[in-house]
Amino acid sequence: MSRDEELSKYAILIENYKEQLNYLDMQYSYLQTAIADCNKAKITLDQMSKTDNNTDILVPIGGGVFVNANMKNNSKVLFDIGAGLATEKNSEDAIKKIDSRIENLQKTQEKLITMMQQLQAEATEVSEKAQQLLYEEKKE
To answer: Which three-class secondary structure state does DSSP give residue 72?
Structure first.
């Protein structure tokens, strides 16, 4: 394999590593957002459990918009279990489930970090090989 072909191969590899790292970084950001969302839900559930029934509240519907509502029963919440299904839970059980979700999301984040570190190390190794090849070429 000629030096030009080898340098081209290294350049393609480095670009692939960059793309993979960008993708993993996006996934990491998604997980950060999901964890923040779960933490907001925990805080809301905790505050709701301290609120009396038949209390007027503001419910966020997105985009910084709220609607007035009346909380008739603060002891039960609907909890999304996936695939478009929800189940009724008391606030304490819902918080436990949210904690479990957060834990799973954090474990996934740790795996992503490990993968990103490994990819970064491999990219650095390939980059160093390419630089060495260029250095040897200049010496000749």
So the answer is: coil
Strands 85-90 and 76-82: antiparallel
95, two tokens: 């918080």
Is the pLDDT confidence value at 140 over 80? no
Residue 95's pLDDT is: 93
Among all chains, which residue has been given the structure tokens 């790292």?
A: 21
The H-or-E segment that residue 120 falls in is helix 91-139
Q: Among candidates 27, 28, 32, 43, which has minimal Cα distance to 98? A: 43
**Residues 22-36: tens digit of each pLDDT:** 999 999 999 999 999
Burial class (CB in 10 A: 0-12, 13-18, 19+), 15: exposed
Q: Which residues pair with 10 in a beta bridge?
A: none
**What values do phi and psi take at 60, rounded to 5?**
-70, 135
| Tokens (6 digits) for 134 | 């260029």
The CB density around residue 9, as the number of other CB atoms within 10 Å, is: 14
Retrieve residue 58's tokens: 């503001």
Q: How far apart are CA 127 and CA 70, in angstroms?
A: 61
